[in-house]
Amino acid sequence: MSAIPAVVMKILDDWRIPYTAADDQELFEIMQSNTPASYSAKVANVVFLKDDMGQIQVVIPGNRMLDLTRLSHSFGRQFTALAEEELSALKTRYELSEFPALPQITGMESMVDAALLEETELYIVSGAGHEWLRIPMEQFRTLTTSSHIGNYTAPLRPDSPQQGADLDLEDVHSAIRQFTPLRIRQRLEETLDLPPLPETARKIIELRVDPNADTKALANTVELDPGMSAQVLSWARSPYYGTRGEVKTVEEAVIRVLGFDLVINLALGLALGRTLSVPKEGPHGYAPFWQQAVVTATLCAELVRKIPFDMRPSQGLSYLCGLLHNFGFLILGQIFPPQFSLVNRHIEANPHINRLYIEHYLLGMTREQCAASLMFQWQMPAELVSAVRHQHNPACNDEHAVYANLLFIASRLLRQHGFGDGPFEAIPDTMFEGLGLKKEDAEEVTQALLERLDDLGDLVALLNQNG
């Protein structure tokens, strides 16, 4: 075990707190044994918040969501999470890689959720590396004697990914009735066609289902949209693909570099991506929308190349699923602006949990439900609809599960390497096995991709201009 940071060791010694060591693997196993999966009541997390009066710290269990509204009612203050740079400054000051849930470290005003104190022992990060400390509850209680104890959290309300599309749409309409102004509610409830399917996307879908479609037909369709042509050419010329010689036409890009399958799904993703603008406000501390989209899409395509040929799904469709995996973020930003802001503040304050639980708690639905419902009405590929809807469902076993599982793996691999807003959760070994994907290959591909982020910069910049 790495040396426990000095500031943590001093508190453990001064307060005579007994502890034993644990590591990430042990924690993952404990967390996987709980319901909802991947979260544990035994894990103590500290969240730093601020308002006009200063900074505070809140210690909460890993299986519950910090409810900013409850906290506000309890103290008559409006809190928001510390910005990433403020949190980094705190870590630097105390020489910690992560903050252990020990109120004495900072000496800030401290709140402790009562649900946490019901356990017999707790796990807290040590503050160094990926290691944890196991502390008996009796001794942990002594550390909270100067803290406010109260009910500041809400239980996680799991999504039901196995429910049918009709119930998903019902949840979406319920949220619309609850949160949307009357003047646009009826239009949304009738069709949820916000906005209509773009003409370019409709033409591309016709090509996808045409068995006689060829490279020239695809190039002609893409070239009808000058912006899309520029983006496809930029993709083909990207340093990421290391193409030799100049790529002058869309048809060349298809034949020489990208391939029919990838271009047709890339073009479809671009067409849909431009139908909704990226909200100006999102959760702080995460990579921008299009950067996450491009990196996730690229990782999905790279992972496919590591799957045995006879088990391999479509690389182009995998790319499309990655590019549009977070399409629901755009929809929420457009349909529910005030609630969207509230959701973002709670995501910032609850980095320890999968944000789908936050959306389900605050809205009664998730962005995945909303996006999948709209894509279904747009008659998008069934593989895409399934992948978007089930990307956080490790038990997905429908006929297109391979795409959902690919997204599940990609988002968690990226988060484990410090990129993106995917959940920090373990990936079941059975999921790798089901895809025929070696865990070490997936790790290697992820690391290599993140080392080449700059090579994808031009692609992200183009999408940001058009998004």
Structural class: alpha+beta
Tally of distinct domains: 2
Would you identify the regions where 5 or more consecutive residues have pLDDT less than 50?
Answer: 34-38, 181-193
- For the record, the CATH architecture of the largest domain stands as Orthogonal Bundle
**Strand neighbour order, sheet with most strands:** 5-2-3-6-9
Specify the CATH class of the largest domain.
Mainly Alpha
Number of helices: 23
Strand content: 5-15%
Overall description:
By secondary structure, the chain is of the alpha+beta class. It folds into two domains: 6-155, YbaK/aminoacyl-tRNA synthetase-associated domain (YbaK protein, Alpha-Beta Complex); 165-195 and 276-466, Hypothetical protein af1432, CATH 1.10.3210.10. It contains 23 helices and ten strands. The chain has helices at residues 6-14, 24-32, 68-75, 84-94, 137-142, 165-179, 182-191, 199-208, 215-223, 226-237, 250-258, 260-273, 289-305, 315-323, 327-335, 337-349, 355-363, 367-377, 382-390, 401-416, 429-435, 439-450, 457-466; strands spanning 20-23, 44-51, 54-61, 64-66, 80-81, 109-113, 121-125, 131-136, 148-150, 153-155. The strands form three sheets. It has a five-stranded mixed sheet with strand order 5-2-3-6-9, with helices on one face. The chain has a three-stranded antiparallel sheet with strand order 1-8-7. Strand 2 and strand 3 (54-61) form a beta hairpin. It is elongated and about 75 Å long. The relative contact order is 0.11. The model is unreliable at 34-38 and 181-193 (pLDDT under 50).
